[in-house]
Amino acid sequence: MKTIFKKKCLFLFFQCKYNHSMQNGLTYFHFDEINSTNSYLYDKMSVGEDVADTVVSASYQTAGRGMDKNSWESAEGQNLLFSIALNVSYLEAKNQFKISQAVAVAIVDTLQSIVNRPGLSVKWPNDIYFGDKKLCGMLIQNTVEGRMMGVSIIGIGLNVNQIEFSKRLPNPISLKMITGEELNLQNLLEKLTANIKNAVESLENQSCFESLDKKYTDKLYRYRQWADYLYKNEVKSMIINGFDLFGRLLLTDKSGAEAVCDVKEIQFCLPSSPQDSEADA
């Protein structure tokens, strides 16, 4: 394992320096620079390595990834960029959206003690918002073995200490912009990953599904609120009613017509956008 790890590091990450430690039942690797923490874990898994309970973080990503090939931009050393791999073989494939729900709820609950004010929410399916601003993005890659899940690689980009962002980003915000305080990245990483691990492992008991649905719904951005969405190339006023088993968003427009939307089939229009027409995926 160690030999393969070094070869991968030399080939993919240009002899970047890394630190290794163990905490909370998790093995941590930190790189000064990496292409993508998700890609690193996925590549290790692809050559047969056991990556479960591994956390990979980086000060800077050269090819940070978001959902549906979106990129993730972050100033070097100011934010949390990490991926955690967990064994979810106890979970039926049809329930894989529960992973997204559990992780999102765990992140909001962890950050609430830092923010200590109302405003945190989960923008479907798993972005974390403060007000109408994006605080955290997520990319989850799952493997499936028959009707059961295999390994879940959960990639997270959390804006922590950065206060200046590219103008290309429509609505970023960071914890420092909210609280005015600089946060210790390592301490926050350990707290988040421990809580994410516990939240995902709780899914082994299906009796928690109903309460998880409620927690997720209670934190859902714009739930039961009329707002504008870009749907089928048209900006429409719609209301979120919930989500189905597969995580698809359920909405109704002013005429009473219902919509069942997968990711990228609908976009949220940002209130601060010019003429309320700019959309956030």
What is shown here, in short?
The chain has 281 residues and is of the alpha+beta class. It contains 6 helices and 14 strands. The model is unreliable at 1-15 and 273-278 (pLDDT under 50).
List the helices and strands and how they pair.
Elements: H1 2-13, E1 18-23, E2 26-34, H2 37-46, E3 54-61, E4 80-87, H3 97-115, E5 120-123, E6 127-130, E7 133-145, E8 148-158, H4 175-179, H5 185-201, H6 209-218, E9 226-231, E10 234-243, E11 249-253, E12 258-261, E13 266-269, E14 279-280
Parallel strand pairs: 2-3
Antiparallel strand pairs: 1-2, 3-4, 4-8, 5-6, 6-7, 7-8, 9-10, 9-13, 10-11, 11-12, 13-14
Helix pairs in contact: 3-5, 3-6
Report on the structure:
With 281 residues, the chain is of the alpha+beta class. The chain has helices at residues 2-13, 37-46, 97-115, 175-179, 185-201, 209-218; strands at residues 18-23, 26-34, 54-61, 80-87, 120-123, 127-130, 133-145, 148-158, 226-231, 234-243, 249-253, 258-261, 266-269, 279-280. α3 (97-115) runs antiparallel to α5 and α3 crosses α6. It is 26% helix and 33% strand. The strands form two sheets. An eight-stranded mixed beta sheet has the order 1-2-3-4-8-7-6-5, with helices on both faces. It starts with a helix and ends with a strand. It folds into two domains: 2-218, Bira Bifunctional Protein, Domain 2 (BirA Bifunctional Protein, domain 2), CATH 3.30.930.10; 226-280. The radius of gyration is 19 Å and the shape is globular. The chain has six helices and 14 strands. Mean pLDDT is 89; it is low at 1-15 and 273-278.
